[in-house]
Amino acid sequence: MSSELLAYASYILRYNYYHPNEIKRPLRTMPLLEAALDDCHIIRCRRVYSLERPDLKSLLKDKQPFLLFPSEDAVTCDNLPNNAALIAIDGTWRQARNILFTSTGLSQLPKCRVDLSKNKFKNQYIIRTQPEEGFVSTLEAISAALAESEKDSSLYEILTAPLRALCAIQLEHGAQQHHSKQELLAKGIWDGDRPSKNRNKLNRERLLIERYNKLQLESAQANEHNKKKSLR
Hints:
The chain folds into 2 domains: 2-172, 3-Layer(aba) Sandwich (Alpha/beta knot), CATH 3.40.1280; 181-231. Strands 1, 2, 3, 4, 5, 6 and 7 form a 7-stranded mixed β-sheet that branches. α5 (138-149) packs antiparallel against α6. It is α/β, with parallel strands linked by helices. The chain has helices spanning 30-36, 54-57, 93-101, 104-107, 138-149, 154-172, 181-186, 199-231, and strands at 2-9, 12-18, 39-44, 64-68, 75-76, 84-90, 111-113.
């Protein structure tokens, strides 16, 4: 797990934990964010049993930690207190869930999330396949959270600019633009592993496709509504 203490404003700390396997990935996003922020501390581990550990205790002094995770009881980032410490987990979605649910030091923290009803963030990390539409990299998630908590939308564009440049360079040198696994499944062109007999996995895949089709229908209806509205 990798833990990066991200500090943007003088009164609010940001932390990010990441899975040790993430260090093996050649195109990780967190070093880009680390370079862009004034104060960034990285801790690699698989479990966080307590925030009283020496490498965190002093950093969290007089701070209220919040875990960036989209749970139902999460508060939106624009409602975080001034002394909030934003903690995020870096890794694949499977690794992040495993870290969260096996780390008592993190699972018991209050959660925060980006308010997607006010802010629409499109995936910028187009050279890696995301599991679903709307899923983004750790860098993008933290950038969105920072922009919302600081109430400065330009922060998102500033902090994700290096990621867009990275993707542009990779595309120029032969990389292919990736679409989400969810979209590829819905269009019948996913060439990865597929469940054949496991009913739970088959059901999850079916629901994934249904959610994609629903999103596309809602998007088309919204576009049609806006088009009619502009013609009035």
